[in-house]
Structure formats: structure tokens, C-alpha cells
Amino acid sequence: MRRRSSNATLYLVLIIVLAIMAVLNPTRFLRVRNFYSMAYQLPFLAFLAMGQMVPIVGGGINLAIVATANFTGIITAMLLRALSGGSPLEASTLVILVSMLGGVLAALLAGALSGFLIGYLRVPDILATLGTMILLNGVNIVLTKGYTLTGFPDALIAIGNGVFLGIPIPFWLFLAIAVVFRMIMERSVFGYQLYMIGSSYTASRFAGINTRSVIMGSYLLSSLFAAITAFVMMGQLNSVKANYAESYLLVSVLACFLGGVDPLGGDGRVSGLVLAVMILQVISTGVNLMRMDPFFILAMWGFIVLVIIAANHLSGRFRLQRPLRGLGQDSGLADG
Question: In Å, how far from its chain's centre is CA 146?
């Protein structure tokens, strides 16, 4: 595994972005209400980014993560309606839990499909998850017939819209899950093996790592985060739809790259990802307060992704060139 970089630069960027937004819009950005709004919105992107980080660390990517979240929400909503006799607002706690469990199982099924294609059949991750995304988008439209499903019980709404001790419940969930996620990625055998696979798939196989099961596990975990995202989305919007949050696919990848997750795999820290999500949330909130065109914002995210990829590529190439030059000088090859 490659050496993990410090988060000092990300802390500095966060401070600079906060300062810029405060200067550009001091009367609105610095309000307590605005920071409350950011705490309310941030977990949605954070859970998607965490789910995206898992396969990227292993050398892959999950293009189906947003489609999986929508699939989870739709299955959960349909089960709520079916099990409550057509009255989801009056659903019992047991019905809510069973419906959510059904949604989680649906998400895991989608993750298992991608994991099987990539881990066992060795289909390229982009092709496998792109195919899964297209499949799920089609299934989502068929299930909903293009309509929006609305009307959920208060207990489910509270997951995305509740408040505890003056702080949004989604933010509490984000803090707790981030701690557990860091332990999984940086303190567990699974996490260690995933980083190893991302660094060198061939070396991992020679080291005796069951690469198939680890890759499968990475896409199952990624889909679990998609399910968590779905429940937060259902609570915040009180609705589900076949194509909700499609633009967040790009932003989830951007958060990973900005947070120091190597696009080629094998490197990246959860703390860096969390800082990157905070930076992106501050930028998003700031530009929204300035009433910028949402299409311009999407283009801005794409531009930032390209810049980060180019910077990572150049820095990686320079890191490789320096040891090679040193080796040539030490061995006398430079003079030959």
C-alpha cells in the first residue's frame, strides 16, 4: 500500500473556502440557520461518498450507487404500501422495519450483481456497474411507471428530517457511521485486504488474499451505503422517484478524489473523505446562496474532477520518475 498523505491541505482548503463564502455573502452565510441547513444536507452526500470510496479503494468504482439508492427507496415504499393495506402513513413499527429490511436486501442484491460480475467474472468495473445502473434505472421506471411515490410514516420521516438535541438526526447518523466506517476501512482485516487489492491485484492473489470475496464484499458494503442514503432521502423528501439525485453520482466521485482517494486504488483515508464532503457542502451552499445557475454548478463539479485527476496523474508520474533517475545514477546507467 502507498503511504497515506496528510489532511493538512484539506483543512487549509476548508478554512479558505469558509472565509471566501463568508466574505462573498456575510449576511446570509454566517447565520446559524445556514450552518443548520448544511448539517441537514451534508449526510446525503457523505453516505454516497462513503459508498463510492469502498470500491475505488479496491481499484474499482460503483456507477450504480445512485440507481441502487433509488431502487432501495422504491422497494421500501412499495412494501410499506403493500404491508400496510394501502395506508403507509399508518404503518406500524414492525411494518416499517420489515419494509426497510426489504429495501436493504434489494440494495444488497444490486451490489451482489456488480460484485459477482467484477470479482468472479472479471468484467471491468466500469462496464459492470454501468450495466447494473442501466438495469436498475429501467426497473425503477417500470416499478413506478414514471410517477413519484409519496406519503411515508413519521418514524421514517424522522430519519431524514428529525432533530435531536438541536442537531438534525441525519448528522448524528453521519457522525456515528463515519466512526464505524473508519474502523472497517482502516482497522479491519477486510479493509487491509481491500487496500492491498487496490495497490496490486496480482500481488494480493500471491499473498493468499481471496480477491473474489473481498471485491464482492466491497460492492455489498457500497450498496449498503446506498440503502442508508435512500432512507435519508425518503425522510428528507417524503418521496421516492426513479431518477432522484442523478447528479450526485459525479459529486460522490469528486468527493473521493478531492479527499485523497487514489483513482487507481490502494490509497485514501476516511478522514480525508469527510473533509472533502464538508468542503463540497460549503461550496454548494455558498453558490446556492448566490443564486447561481444549477447547470453551471454541475459543470463546475465536472471541471474540478478533471483537474484533480490530472493533478493526481502528474504527481504520480513525477513520483515514479524520481526513483528511476536515482536508480540510474546509483548503478552507473546514467552515464551509459
Answer: 25
Segments in the chain forming alpha helices (H) = 8-24, 26-29, 32-57, 65-83, 93-115, 125-144, 154-161, 169-187, 189-199, 201-206, 211-237, 248-258, 270-289, 294-331
Determine the Cα angle at 27 with ends 22 and 30, to 5°: 50
CA 104 – CA 225 distance, rounded (Å): 10
d(CA 61, CA 222): 10
Query: What is the percentage of the chain residues whose pLDDT exceeds 90?
Result: 65
Q: Position 86: which residue type?
A: G
Rounded to two decimals, the pTM is 0.88
CATH topology of domain 20-324: ABC transporter involved in vitamin B12 uptake, BtuC (1.10.3470)
Q: What is the pLDDT of residues 119-129, one digit of tens each?
A: 999 999 999 99
**Considering all CA atoms of the chain, what is the largest pairwise distance in Å, rounded to the nearest integer?**
83
